[in-house]
Amino acid sequence: MSALDLKDVRKVYGDGDQKVVALDNVSLSVADNEMLFIMGPSGSGKTTLLTVAGGLLQATSGSVVVGGTDISGFDGRELAAFRRDRIGFVFQAVNLVPFLTARENLLLVRQFGGGKIDTDARDRADSLLTDLGLADRAGNLPSQLSGGQQQRVAIGRALMNEPPLVLVDEPTSSLDSELGQQVMELLTKEIKSRGLAAVVVTHDDRILDFADRIVQIVDGKLTSDSSDNSSASPSGR
Amino acid sequence: MRRQAGRFVLLTGAIALLVLLLGFFQTVSSALTSGITGGLLNNQADLLVYSDKARLNPAASVLAPDAASRVSDVDGVERAAGVGRGQFADQSADGDVTVIGLDDLAFGGPAKVATGRRATKPGEALASSPDLSSSDVSYAVGDTLTLEGVDLVVVGTSDGAAFDVGPTMYVSFEDLQTMKSNDAGVQVPALFSWVAVELADGVDSDTVVAQIDDLGVPASSDTTTAAPASASLASTGFEAVDRSAAADALPGVDQITQSFNILYLLLFIVVTIVTGVFFLILTVQKRDSLVLMRALGASRADVIKPILIEVVLVVLVGSVLGTAVAAGLLEIAKDSFGTLDPITAALSVVLILLLGIVSSFASVRRVLQVDPVEAARRRGAS
Fold first, then answer.
1. Overall number of domains in chain A
2. Whole-model pTM?
3. Nearest-CA distance from A52 to chain B in Å?
4. Is the dihedral of CA B166, B169, B170, B175 positive or negative?
5. CA angle, B69 then B71 then B74, to 5°
6. Any chain A CB within 8 A of the CB of B296?
7. Cα B207 off chain centre by
8. CA nearest A138: which of A119, A122, A118?
9. Which label site among A138, B37, B157, B250 has the fewest CB atoms less than 10 Å from its CB?
10. Rounded Cα distance, B84 and A120, in Å
11. In whole angstroms, what is the distance from residue B291 CA to residue A99 CA?
């Protein structure tokens, strides 16, 4: 069973003359424990692909199966529960709740759907923050953290509910080279050590070494699939 | 949350101040209207019977001496007694005193006596207790006063028993007649202002009221021999009402009630707007966070519930705090303003709480409009 299976997925915005095809019959499969990178120019449909896979948008047609569950017919409430339990998101921009501390940002996702913050949740948040090198910043607000530290908190939050699939949008876009490498090393380590699958959308060539596989998308169509990423560095594995 | 604590404290304080103001308004309003209506509302009588030409104004009502006996003959009436009314100057206290003359000193006066006892004979008076409306002129048990040549000694006091926003003396009808005659310089006819009625147990008030109203104008009046001119005034039909209706119909009550109702309405509107705008601004400011939470899997209930809890907490704490401070301050100044009515205060808190929840609808609507996909579409540093 794959972590993610997209089959003939189309996403069309608007209608008539205003119709825009964001995804054009995209079929894609991501295996467990695989890090798939999606590359493409601006407006190529990368983020749309990510949002459809993560249940933030419903495909116009085609099927989206995550961990064996077809979410194509889910309603808003079912999609919210699906995102809460099955997906870990790391967004490019709005990523942390500014009035919550790093630790509270991790615990936040445990409260959704009537969940309680118990000792297990607190231990897991502390453990993740320690793994991410943020144990001493647990009580800091996002504004008191650097860009790299904020991304690390977002990664921790994405892993908090132990989702089988992590979706990452432009994780290094606001970081310099060195910080970008550090964040990617950490992300890869956490994903791989937990045996999770991840889809990373990026146009940053400097981090391609961390990919198990790279697919290109142009005008909503997948144009190439590099299943043998020969340039992958050891640190990316 | 910690960054918003200051704002929540400010809103709670603002609501507390508005509720404090509301508490004062309600108490002052109650004291003012009590100064007008207390004598009727806290009366022993179940019904009051006026002349049908008086339009429920006790000052304009004139009834013949046989009015009480005619009313007492109605089925369901346990007891009926004539009551007269006048207003005289107390030269020593430099103030006016309303005098209620009771044909039966045991019936027609205040239902409860606060200190001392009721008057039992001419020369004695039961005085209304001092309140906001009569703080300049007040009487206590043992005080003496002379009204139009009639010496009175205060033998008791009663709370909320005033008429005409001033001190009120419940005396014998005989003393009242003497005062009126001394004031006029001639013997005036003994005419009542109203008849106080006690209903028999278990009778229907409306039925008795209808029977009294149907008594109509008597064929002849007993007063014709004593004072023919006044007899025609007294030869009228009856209009019976219960205490509450009688109090509501008193001149000035409606105007005071309406004025204060407008103030209450304004305060409730201000509370609603302040709370609604505060939470709307907060929601707009938190929009990015709400988008993120929805994207991460928060249901609509997950993001709406905290807003409603915050509204309820802030409004409840603010209104309880305001009520507590108002009650404390009014307790200190109870001689001037009276005390806060706990039932009115509790109802106000409940109403403000409901309005607070209503005011949060705009915020909730905003939250419901949040599209979680925006989290993925936004660009830039977090």
1. 1
2. 0.69
3. 9
4. negative
5. 115
6. yes
7. 27
8. A122
9. A138
10. 81
11. 14
